[in-house]
Amino acid sequence: MSDESSAAIRDTRKDWVVEHRDMYLSSGGAQGHIMDVTPVGGRSFATHCLVKYTGRKSGKVFITPLCYGDIGGEVVICASKGGADHHPAWYLNIREQEFVEFQVATQAFRATWREPEGAEREKVWNFMVDCHPFYGDYAKATDRVIPLVMMKAIEPIPVFKASDATGIRQF
Predict the structure, then answer these.
(1) 78 forms bridges with which residues in the sheet?
(2) How many Å apart are CA 151 and CA 45, to the nearest integer?
(3) Where are the beta strands (DSSP E) in 36-87?
(4) CA 105 to chain CA mean position, Å
(5) What residue ranges define each of the domains in the chain, with the CATH number in brackets?
(6) Average pLDDT per block of 10 residues along the chain, 171 residues long
(7) Alpha helices (H) in the chain, listed in sequence order
(8) Is the separation of the CB atoms in 53 and 62 below 8 Å?
(9) Which of 33, 77, 130, 144 is the 20 to 30 Å CA partner of 138?
(10) How many other β-carbons are positioned within 10 Å of the β-carbon of residue 14?
(11) CA-to-CA distance for 154 and 20, rounded, in angstroms?
(12) Cα(147)–Cα(32) distance, rounded to whole angstroms?
């Protein structure tokens, strides 16, 4: 998939993503965790988390909603960017941090993160495609290997608020 076609997908979903993030944050996680994403090739009961990280260039704090899976006690997210030919900014930012923060429903955590490799990566990738089929389509649309990030909670933290974010995610 070219970056142009990925941009078209992002434009189509831009308002939905912003509304989803705002709903998740304003409800303290009571809403937005489970969403129907059948219009974009997903499932009617799809799980979403919020990921909070610091921009590697701007130093601003961002909060991004992402589909996730839970495997082996770790929360897994995919750096798919809709099948674009380059990695999403959130992934590049997380790679520069030792820790990450995430929220699932009404619980937030400080976490370590890692990228699975080899046979483990294949197992986790297959699990994520089973949970969120559109990831398989995205992988076919690009030559890059879509990174997986596995986050392991180490301590609970307060749920995220819109005021925590000092930057606005660009789509």
Answers:
(1) 148
(2) 22
(3) 46-54, 61-67, 69-71, 74-78
(4) 14
(5) 3-161 (2.30.110.10)
(6) 52 71 94 84 85 95 95 96 93 96 98 98 97 92 96 98 84 47
(7) 3-26, 89-95, 118-131, 134-140
(8) yes
(9) 33
(10) 13
(11) 26
(12) 24
pTM of the full structure = 0.88
User: Angle at the Cα of 124 (from 16 to 90), degrees rounded to 5?
Assistant: 40
Give CA–CA dist 161/21, Å, rounded.
10
From CA 145, how far away is CA 148, in angstroms rounded?
Answer: 9
- CA atoms of 103 and 109, how far apart (whole Å): 6
Q: What is the pLDDT of residue 170?
A: 54
According to the model, what pLDDT value does residue 10 have? 52
Per DSSP, what are the bridge partners of residue 109? 102, 156
The two structure tokens encoding residue 54: 């610091």
Q: Which DSSP letter does residue 133 get?
A: T
Nearest to 102 by CA among 30, 31, 153: 153
At which residue do the structure tokens 């899976």 appear? 69
Q: Tell me the β-bridge partners of 148.
A: 78
